[in-house]
Design goal:
With about 230 residues, the chain is α/β, with parallel strands linked by helices. It has 7 helices and 13 strands. Helix 2 packs across helix 6 and helix 4 packs parallel to helix 5.
């Protein structure tokens, strides 16, 4: 027998990284972060900025699982959010209706939220842009979702083929969104600095032109390459 489930299951207390730790990731390029995590960590390529003027953010994840065609958990997350949080909302990739619009963006701004990220759709693009909030979604549709639950807030979720836990640091820019696990923040930041240094020291010509690395030219002159003509 299936008993009636609660509309929302909420974990209110979870460890967030210190503000000083989060600040280290502000302005980090997502491509550099991915390189610092062995080429992984980016959410599905379809999840991009809805507002072309607000696309850079970094903050701890406040996760919610709204499920397909539902927004109740996202609304609850706005009420529970701390300033600087990033609302990361899983809809199981549902694309039949939008789960964030101009009113949700306005609520998020009121709560001090840094961004909303979802694998679902957005709507009211003009209003979202007017809000100034960074909203990342998998697409746009005028269709509206229900507010019925069930859902979760503050629990681990799967979104855009990446596992995201509350308190992970989420970073976004024009290229997309990257989630950095909270238990790897120090390691990834150290690797990030190495990636930045390596990029800055990439070999260039006398006039600043970027050339094919020397190791590729060496390979082309080695016995490990067979030329067919």
């Amino acid at each position: 027998m299936i008993t009636e489930r609660p509309l929302l299951s909420i974990r209110r207390q979870f460890p967030r990284p210190e503000h000083a730790v989060v600040r280290r990731f502000k302005g980090a390029a997502t491509v550099h972060l991915v390189d610092a995590m062995d080429g992984r960590g980016a959410l599905d390529w379809r999840i991009k900025a809805v507002n072309p003027a607000a696309f850079v953010f970094a903050g701890p994840a406040l996760t919610c699982s709204a499920g397909p065609d539902d927004t109740l958990a996202i609304l609850a997350a706005f009420e529970l959010a701390e300033p600087g949080d990033v609302i990361v909302a899983s809809t199981e990739g549902f694309t039949g209706s939008a789960v964030v619009g101009d009113l949700f963006a306005a609520m998020a701004k009121t709560a001090g939220v840094a961004a909303i990220v979802t694998d679902g759709l957005a709507r009211d693009v003009e209003g979202i842009c007017a809000s100034g909030l960074a909203v990342f979604a998998a697409g746009v549709s005028p269709n509206s979702a229900a507010r019925s639950g069930p859902g979760t807030v503050g629990c681990p979720i799967s979104l855009g083929n990446v596992e995201v836990s509350p308190g992970d640091v989420v970073v976004g820019d024009r290229d997309g969104v990257v989630a950095v696990p909270q238990n790897r923040l120090e390691e990834v930041h150290a690797a990030l600095e190495e990636v930045r240094t390596s990029e800055a020291e990439f070999p260039r010509g006398a006039n600043g032109e970027v050339r094919v690395p020397g190791y590729v030219r060496e390979l082309l002159h080695s016995d490990r390459v067979r030329y067919l003509g």
